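request received
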Amino acid sequence: MSSAKQLILSSLRRSLRREQPSAEVRALLEQRLAAPQANLVPQRAQLPHAEQLDLMERMLKELSASVVRLPSEAAVPQAVADYLKGENLPPKLRMAPRDDLRALPWQSQPLLEVEEGIAEAEDATSLTGAFAGIAETGTVMMASGPEAPVTLNFLPENHIVVLRASQIIGTYEEAWQRLRAAQGRGVMPRAVNMITGPSRTGDIEQTILLGAHGPRRLHVLLVDDRDAVRTGD
Amino acid sequence: MQSTSRDFKDNARAALANQTLQKAMKHVKTGFIDKRAKARDRLPEFDDLRDASRDIKDHTLANLDFYLERYEEKVIASGGQVHWAPTAEDARKTVLDICRRVDARVVTKGKSMISEEIALNQAMEEAGLDVVETDLGEYIIQLRKEPPSHIIAPAVHLTKEQVEADFRHHHRELPPERPLSEPLQLVAEARQMLRRRFLEADVGITGANFLVAETGTSIIVTNEGNGDLTQTLPRVHIVVASLEKVVPNLEDVSTILRVLARSATGQEFSSYTTFSTGPRRPDDPDGPEEYHVILLDNGRSNMLGGQFQDMLRCIRCGACMNHCPVYHAVGGHAYGWVYPGPMGAVLTPNLIGVDEAGHLPNASTFCGRCEAVCPMRIPLPKMMRHWREREFERHLSPTAVRAGLAVWAFFARRPKLYHVAMGLQARLLGYFGRASGRFDALPFARGWTKHRDFPAPEGRTFQQLWAEKQSGKAPR
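response:
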């Protein structure tokens, strides 16, 4: 053990007027780490799933994000092209290297240039998936990995997210349950990004402005995949 | 950071006379308060979440040694490194050693009050590093070579005209005739200037709002996205965090996050809450190759188990200063060190000594708003009183104050004499003040009446009025 660590730990224990916690206390503490329990969870998002979708959409819009609901994944390329045109943005995308995004009917949009990979300085718009949508605060949760480069969430000025209805949950606690189920207990991806609206600042005279350093626009394509989930497609 | 807390009185006097500062501070008096109140009203469980958050931190502090060791194990298991730093000097040295080893030239930084506390920028600049603050507020004050005046809005003491002048002075490569009077133009210019710096940085340094023992995770809560670019793009990410930032698990941190943004900016949730665990994984396409956490003590372990332990629950939301009439009047710089407002008045003497910062706990009207809004329910006024007692015990308070208190104590210990004296005083002041209803000068209280009038009493004391009322004599 480093002497600095020893110094700090003994100072803490001196202040706490004890040596190590007793075996009994230790067992309780280990339990708190091994099997985390939810504390008080607000009622707001503890709703039937359809209402969680509505809450998600409402909260996103309140945050100055934009939302479009799509009947199926196949509608994504058209919706992306429409959005870029509507915002007067170049028809060019840096897309997360995901099989499901790659499999979309991009050939239906011949004018749209789609490249995969991490974000480069000159990329104007990124398209990513998500790990979950948390209705409580309209938060989109990203879990980094080979299919989810973190730079796509922050470097481009415009960020388009494909979020499936089945990924929408009520609360942060449910998100951790899902993440533990996917990754294993006590294991995190390198980065989990909870994104709640576009980048903003209030540093100049408390005027709230969008697009400080991260994306100026956050656009969510909310895809209805509930039939697919129900039929196990 | 060099403290000027000894000069609080002079600092405050200068701040009150500074018209530009007073103009800038107008935004603080309303903006933060209204936004927090709205956010609180929207969440019925808000006050219960404050209780839950307090309990989580109390539990963690009672077992801080255990959770820190478990946290360290998890960081190492995810490929990161933990450096324990008993003092500011140790922390600075560790950062410089890492920068030297990786041959760093440009270092970007997210906003970190711990980095201000340990005067990291100065040390890095002296070592020849090119240090760039990337939070807009921090960037502005770095250009001005000023310390932050608020823990979450470091440039809140400035007007947009001042920022425009600074940008014109420092961004010489841009066309001088460009329009720059609107906040939007200023934000766009800062974005443009900092973009290149993000991409060329070798090391990124951030603070941490929380550390999670369950997973070995550090968390930053931001709105601009600068912190994420700072920690994602360079080869090395260094987190500087004080040791009380640790919480047990992700559920615990979720509870506290629900009160953090609402108390700070009145947002339901900040734009970016980022959970970082270790360096880039073998199949990750981006992220830093090295991940270091510097765990700073700097006096905090001594606060544990004593009168000031509750202060270690602080999550640095800034609500106490946003609601403080003294902070509103004098701004953050008057406090003379990193942490202003009520939380600074309690924390600063703990970290730099009551001899140096003894004025700060006196800079309070004890109105109690800070405690009323604190999401972690920290009894700030009570702890300021503890400091006043210590200041008195150590004979640091001025002779006039001590003499005044001695006179008052003499009467206060003799209730009969006290009532007679107070009754006489009320009659006298009532008599002499009946014409104008106020005094613009009083003997022994010139310091007080210099800045405001003393209202003349009606001629009787409260206790007399109360006694009359109880016996039914007073008109209802």
